[in-house]
Each structure stands twice: as structure tokens, then as C-alpha cells.
Design brief:
The structure is a single chain. With about 130 residues, the protein is mainly alpha-helical. The chain has one domain: Winged helix-like DNA-binding domain superfamily/Winged helix DNA-binding domain (Arc Repressor Mutant, subunit A, Orthogonal Bundle), CATH 1.10.10. The protein contains 5 helices and 2 strands; from the N terminus they run H-H-H-H-E-E-H.
């Protein structure tokens, strides 16, 4: 888990880097393809699931899969980790949150998927003979 960037890191974590801009441009064009597991974990973190055990419970994914995905997302600076005090019930000392880039990626990808679903519904309705398509 040492690959994940801290909230308290350098100024680079606060600024949008060139890599972040490339990712965001690809998302806006619909050419950036995020792994479904990574998308699921980004969505879970955005809903307040800030620890691995919470993400595992919500997503029903294997813990090792979640840890690998979190490392990937951290490497791409889509999430960041903050150290917390360990308790008896929680063995992990990290809390996860979305970075600005992660938040924008999730928002853009959701909008892209909604548009794609709407177009598919419209297409299906047309070919099903529904003349009332609006």
C-alpha cells in the first residue's frame, strides 16, 4: 500500500498534472476505458466507503482484488490515502478519498454511461416498433 499518495504530499498532489489532463481529455472524448472493478471502487469511495473492509462489504469483491485496485487507483492519483489511528476492530490504518481527478473521472464516466444507455434505449425502442420515441 506504499504506492498510494498521501493527502499531505507535495504540491504536485494539489495541482492537476499533465497525466491527469490527458486522462480527463480522454474521458471527455469517451476514449478512456476504466476497468469495471476500478470504477466500482471509485464509486464506493465516493459514497463514503473509506476503508478496505467497507469497500469489500459494499462491493462483495475479494479483499485482494480491492487492494490491487486501490493500489492501481493510487498510482494513477485517482484516490489518496490518509493515515488514521488503528483500532482493535480495524487492522488497516488508511482512509481513502477521491482526488479531484478521481472525482472528475467518476462524474465524466457516469455521464458517458448514462448517454450510452439512453442511446441504446432509444435504438431498442425504434427497432421494437415503438413509434412514440421522443
Amino acid at each position: 500500500m506504499s504506492e498510494i499518495h498521501d493527502n499531505k504530499g507535495s504540491e504536485e498532489n494539489n495541482d492537476t498534472s499533465n497525466e491527469d489532463l490527458v486522462i480527463l481529455n480522454a474521458i471527455s472524448r469517451g476514449t478512456y476505458d476504466i476497468d469495471p472493478i476500478d470504477f466500482t471502487i471509485l464509486d464506493a469511495v465516493s459514497k463514503g466507503m473509506d476503508a478496505i473492509d467497507k469497500i469489500v462489504r459494499l462491493t462483495e469483491l475479494d479483499e485482494a482484488e480491492v487492494e490491487l485496485a486501490i493500489n492501481r487507483l493510487g498510482t494513477h492519483r485517482l484516490i489518496c490515502a490518509t493515515a488514521k489511528k488503528r483500532t482493535l476492530l480495524e487492522r488497516r490504518g488508511l482512509l481513502f478519498s477521491l482526488t479531484e481527478t478521481g472525482t472528475r473521472l467518476l462524474k465524466e464516466k457516469k455521464q458517458f454511461l448514462e448517454k450510452k444507455a439512453a442511446a441504446t434505449d432509444l435504438h431498442s425502442s425504434y427497432y421494437a416498433g415503438n413509434d412514440q420515441v421522443t
